[in-house]
Amino acid sequence: MIGLQKRLAAEFIGTFWLVLGGCGSAVLAAGFPHLGIGFAGVALAFGLTLLTMAYAIGGISGCHINPAVTVGLWAGKRFDGSDVAPYIIVQVAGAVAAAAVLYVIASGKAGFSLSAGFAANGYGAHSPGGYALSSAMVCEIVMTFMFLIVILGSTDKRVPAGFAPIPIGLVLTLIHLISIPVTNTSVNPARSTGPALFVGGWALGQLWLFWLAPIAGAALAGLFYRWLGAEEPEVQATAAPQALTPAQAPGA
User: Fewer CB within a 10 Å sphere, N or C end of the chain?
Assistant: First the structure.
């Protein structure tokens, strides 16, 4: 068993890479003139960061790198409750550190301004597509729910080991392809917190949603998968009585 200190270090560096790679692609590369990667490129960047970290640190910490994933795994009886708070703390710290590095890089360009959003999540006027709070709430709950279903299913002991990072990375890419226009895609409270601390104002004011909705969706998924994946008790069939042959009959 790897000690908690090493697992927390792995979670810190994993979340750092997720936020730097995913948000960095949105801030630095998405709108680059004529060569920008757009929504599809940002979605792929988030999926690739998770895929690479799942292989790099999955065997050490489980590669949660997301408070919602930690809560969902706990709700699904896959994670010790005593480690939930330490995991979440270092995940947020890693996200903030990544946002700080990204700010240093991005601010080196003339004309850089945090008013462009800095990849922060938002709804209403701050949703990329102008989606209302209700739409953002439903989107984040459902997307996080499905994210955890894929995580729980692909890491189930009945599934061949070693392949889980692939569907998990792909589903995060798909989630971003669906929901970037709605909220800029959170499904990860730590990822939302890092950029919001630098943007301040509206981003901090709306941050509550990107903690509440992903954690609610993840917890529901954990509870649902506990029921879905539970093995049914085997029913022992009762053999029907067989007729006795004349030779087996009493007194024969």
Answer: N
Candidates 68, 80, 94, 114; CA nearest to 15 is: 94
Distance between CA atoms of residues 116 and 199, nearest Å: 9
- B/e letters for 43-76, b = 16+ CB within 10 Å, e = fewer, are bbbbbbbbbbbbeebbeebbbbbbbbbbbbbbbb
**What is the Cα–Cα distance from 116 to 139, expressed in whole angstroms?**
23
Convert the pLDDT of each residue in 105-159 to its tens digit.
999 999 899 988 999 999 999 999 999 999 999 999 999 999 999 999 999 999 9
Q: Write down the pTM of the prediction.
A: 0.91
DSSP E strand boundaries for 22-153: none
Distance, CA of 166 to CA of 141 (rounded, Å): 23
pLDDT interval class at 246 (50, 70, 90)? very low
d(CA 26, CA 39): 8
* Contact partners, residue 123, CB within 8 Å, separation at least 6: 131, 132, 133, 135, 136, 137, 182, 183, 206, 209
Contacts of 164 (CB under 8 A, 6+ apart): 54, 58, 151, 154, 155
> Domain residues of the chain, as ranges?
4-108+119-228
